[in-house]
Amino acid sequence: MATAPATYTQPIVSTLGTTNKVDFSQDLPMDYEDAFPFMVLQTRMADEKANNIVFQHAVGRQAPRFTTANGAVGASAVGATAALIVAAGTGVYYVAGDVIEVPDANNDATHTNQLYVVSISTDTLTVQASFTSTYGVAAIDSGAKVTRLFSAVREKWTGSDGQQTEPTVGTKYCGTFENDFSLSDTQRDIWQYTHPERTRLREEKRLQHLQDLETASFVSIGGVDSSTTNDPRYQMSGLISQITTNVFPYGAEMDKDEFYSYMQQIHAPAYSAGKTRLCFASAGFIATINKFVDSKNSSYIRVDPGATTWGPALNRITFGPWTWDFVEAPVLTAIRDGWAVVCVPRYMKTKTFEPTTYEMDIRIPGYHYFKDRFVTKKGLFISGPEETFAVIRP
Asked: What is the DSSP pairing of strand 98-101 with strand 322-328?
């Protein structure tokens, strides 16, 4: 008797699971919202065309209005002059005919701290009381602050010596940023559950390119590597490396008074740039600032969540007369946690040698693969007084 052929059965669910194409969303979600706040800002900043990888820029600023005394000055008799020596190289801040003040010098019935500059020799100011018939020069301690108030020349004055500043010239570089990907003809043509592989890789590299630009815009140290004479390598100057005047360190944790003193210095009258700032901050720094707010002292510092017209969400901090817009920068959170970079957007510019370009089919003819890339050549510089910027760091 013939044996019946064996019958093999398989659950329907298993068949469906191995042969059907999964209904997978064509859009691969990638979490990058608010990931590149500095790049968002740069799309709204002033931009200049670069004609060379190396470029220079000039920054003008007002002459400083204060210095310090370099040595003590004894109190003088009514009507007498005194020699006030100021810190080395700062005598040029003043000209004959200026009225100056030494706030820490004590006034009395016959001495005043408001003085008139009679003449100047290098860093030695010959001064007398602003009203010589009534007062003498008050005693001045070494290191005391000396402030220029205004000019008040006598009648038939023959003219003051010229006093003017020279712009500060800085040299910066356009860095070259490149992110490539490649795939074979076969990889390109195989059906995919999601986007075609070339499309998926393009989006992946686009985000990586943005990440590189964002990171360099903060932390890159500008310069040129000429070790290969004919093919130098350039790095752009990131924002942090361009801020040298206001670098404020804090200890294990910053307190409100320390933060307030930093704000006072950043908003110094000589370089005020207004009463608002934009502050790129790490998550750790923002967490510290948020601790400053409590129900018992809500008038000391106020935090208002909101959004700007230029992009990412922010917290608006009102502290005394000043307002700072805080934006969390994931790059700083990742590699500089606890840091904050304070800036004035209108005092920053980008310098573009080659705007971001997506180049396709960069390969040797006849080879069975595709190679695409994103390329950008750009730089960044502070176009206004650097003293209006700051870095606050642990």
From this structure: unpaired
Given the structure tokens 């790049």, which residue do they identify? 39
> What is the residue whose two structure tokens read 């000429």?
226
The order of strands in the sheet holding 369-382 is: 46-49, 348-359, 369-382, 175-184
- List the domains of the chain with CATH numbers: 25-62+173-394 (3.90.1690), 66-151 (2.40.30)
CA–CA distance from 31 to each of 36, 140, 213 (Å)?
Answer: 11, 62, 18
Could you please report the per-residue DSSP string of 335-348?
HSTT-EEEE-GGGE
Q: Residue 216 has which token pair?
A: 């360099």
| Residue 359, CB-side half-sphere exposure with 13 Å CA sphere | 14
Strands 276-281 and 322-328: parallel
**H or E element in which residue 41 lies:** helix 37-42
State pLDDT tens for residues 28-79: 555 565 788 898 889 888 999 999 999 888 877 777 788 899 999 999 999 8
For residue 101, give the amino acid letter.
E
CB 320 within 8 A of CB 259: no
For the segment 148-207, what is each residue's pLDDT rounded down to a tens digit?
Answer: 999 888 887 877 777 777 778 889 999 999 999 888 878 777 777 777 888 888 888 888
Please name the residue that has the structure tokens 């940023």.
177
In whole angstroms, what is the distance from residue 157 CA to residue 338 CA?
56
CB hemisphere CA count around 228 (13 angstroms):
5
Give yes or no for a contact between 172 and 222, defined as CB atoms under 8 angstroms apart: yes
Closest CA to 278 of 357, 390, 373: 390
The 3-state DSSP class for residue 267 equals coil
Measured between alpha carbons, how far is 66 from 61 in angstroms, rounded to an integer? 14
Q: What is the pTM of this model?
A: 0.76
Using a 10 angstrom Cβ sphere, with 0-12 exposed, 13-18 middle and 19 or more buried, the burial of residue 85 is: middle
CB 337 within 8 A of CB 283: yes
